[in-house]
Amino acid sequence: MSRIATRFEALRAAGRKALIPYITAGDPQPAVTVPLMHALVEAGADILELGVPFSDPMADGPVIQAACERALKHHVSLHQVLDMVRSFRERDAETPVVLMGYLNPVEVMGYQAFSEAAQAAGVDGVLTVDLPPEEAHELVACMKAQQLDPIFLAAPNSDATRIRLMTENGGGFLYYVSFKGVTGANRLDVQAVQDKLNEIRANTDLPVGVGFGISDAETAAQIAAFADAVVVGSVLVKRVAALAGQPDQIPLQAPQVIAEMRAAMDAV
Amino acid sequence: MVTQVKSTADSVPLTELPDANGHFGPYGGRFVAETLMGPLEELRAAYEKFCQDPDFQAELDSDLAHFVGRPSPLYHAERWSRELGGAQIYLKREDLNHTGAHKVNNTVGQALLARRMGKKRIIAETGAGQHGVATATVAARFGMQCVVYMGAEDIQRQAINVYRMRLLGAEVVSVESGSKTLKDALNEAMRDWVTNIDDTFYIIGTVAGPHPYPAMVRDFQTIIGREARAQILEQAGRLPDGLIACVGGGSNAIGLFYPFLEDTDVAMYGVEGGGDGVDSGRHAAPLCAGRPGVLHGNRTYLMEDADGQIIETHSVSAGLDYPGVGPEHAWLKDSGRAQYVAATDEQALQAFHELTRVEGIIPALESSHALAYAGQLAPTLDSDKLLIVNLSGRGDKDIHTVAGLEGIKV
């Protein structure tokens, strides 16, 4: 069983929901990333989502765009991101790591070479924002051959047919994008998310995580009441950005928002 | 990932592409966030329905005739041909269209489609501002709300077009992210679209982006090639020996080329922005010097670094300053049906002056790249050979740029 499936099973047995923080690898500088990943686990993260910086992050709002720009000032490449995962694995063999990014860096490395390198580095899943299931067959085949979970994004306007298509091709969990928009926007309607999740669950056996627009502990707890996982990105990346001038403080202070969410989710 | 894609397109006639999923061989497709998949399918279905609809076609033809001013002339540039001492050059005068370029052929078509789909809000991206002006123009005419995304750098460089768009009632949004140019404006327009998909129609200005845009924009632009084909048959009694057009995203080029694809004796040359020279690295020539990748919803040739990050382009012409190119051009290149070359800034500027002086026509800097290549090719051919050059736009918008390069304050 994959590390992601194992983690979800353990959580289910314990009656808990997964908390999945997102950070952009190399933001604001490469040396911060691995210590921050460990600190997030200590703060209560169950799975880590590591963003691969891209020059043209079309699906992201201004917060994560700026994080990509900070990382790219240090020329953080996909190879380096894999090195970070390898380094993280030296001290943590348990916490699943999901890469989140855009297709082009993977295209340039080559699907097969990427899948092998990601497996070797200790990556568990890959979420490619601009790769819908229709275009994903080849990459999915390469990833599955390396026991990597391809994670698809479902949206408010994805119908049952598309959810089933994602389930057939995907693994790990399904990432439900809570509204029509970009990361970090303030458009979340908890009731609408819950309604849609009921519809999605009728068409998939995968755990369903919810992301986009979850910015405080209260909302995280509300979502955790019915979703299998809560994904938190922009609010954490904002803390990282605010501490960019004192990078030593980032692993100490930024995960606090995750610890608050953990406490609120577990109190439900 | 072209090497891994087994293409079935080799045996399919070029005119029957793209396939149902928008692929031209390994290129094209739909590489977008999930939220856009539904709207793209809705757009594809609406487009396929209305392009068969006689009422829609009649409305489009009427607007092209009375609002745009079509057909545009095919003009035999006799004096320039004589000076070059070779092939006869014919200019397809897209510069004489309303708003001064070929862009309006597409914006009229997409705006009519938006109206039929019940969308009240139009968005667009623009680099030099020509597509933004063409979009703001049709939005004004149809009484639609219009938002144009434009890189902060381009807003500085193209102040007159920014003012023109605002006069037409459009809101021009300055894009401050990334390199602050056309590619970033496209990213921002996509972000707007994904946020406002229920009431918004995104008018993409070139034959790039996710399916169905490359095919739809091409179809609206083929009026150029259809007219040119009939005009050259009437004027010269035969098909031309070659077609030449500049290629940024490639909409004017595909518009000219497409109706001639099955005329295998007609050579096709796409001319990219060579900037300081393709060997200098400072250029905008992905087909000549880039490699395949995925950006802005489609797989195509790109300007990128070894890590797959998109790199900044350079061209004296803002309309060619784009790191990608339409996927159909990528396929025409690989299949060998069209050839792609580059003209440098210097060569384009020389052609700009030459045509202005010899024919009394001030060409756009984009079109000047096509003219530069025509100026090289024509002298190598006999005087009974015929070349059609797409004069895709007029140069009024570039007067300040050209004067500035010569140290003249206008």
Condensed summary:
Helix content of chain A is 49%, strand content 14%. Chain A is α/β, with parallel strands linked by helices. The interface between A and B is large, with 48 and 40 residues.
Helix % of chain B is: 40-55%
Low-pLDDT runs of 5+ residues of chain B are: 1-7
Helical content of chain A stands at: 40-55%
Termini separation of chain B (Å)?
48 Å
Please state the structural category of chain B.
alpha/beta
Cα gyration radius of chain B (Å): 20 Å
Distance between the termini of chain A: 29 Å
Total of helices of chain A: 13
- Sum up the overall morphology of chain B in one term: globular
| Strand line-up of the largest beta sheet of chain A | 5-4-3-2-1-9-8-7-6
> What is the number of beta strands of chain B?
14
In N-to-C order, the SSE pattern of chain A is HEHEHHEHHEHEEHEHEHEHHH
What order do the strands of the largest sheet of chain B run in, or round the barrel if closed? Answer: 3-4-14-9-10-13
- Classified in CATH, the superfamily of chain A is Aldolase class I
Commentary on this structure:
Chain A is 49% helix and 14% strand. Chain A has a single domain, classed as Alpha-Beta Barrel (TIM Barrel), CATH 3.20.20.70. Chain A has 13 helices and nine strands. With 268 residues, chain A is α/β, with parallel strands linked by helices. Chain B is α/β, with parallel strands linked by helices and 410 residues long. In chain B, 42% of the residues lie in helices and 18% in strands. Chain B is built from 16 helices and 14 strands. A six-stranded mixed β-sheet of chain B has the order 3-4-14-9-10-13, sandwiched between helices. In chain B, strands 1-2-12-11 form a four-stranded antiparallel β-sheet. A four-stranded parallel β-sheet of chain B has the order 7-6-5-8, with helices on both faces. In chain B, helix 14 packs across helix 15. Chain B is globular. The N terminus of chain B is likely disordered. The chains are: A alpha/beta (268), B alpha/beta (410). Chains A and B meet through helix 3, helix 5 and strand 6 of A and strand 2, helix 1, helix 8, strand 11 and strand 12 of B.
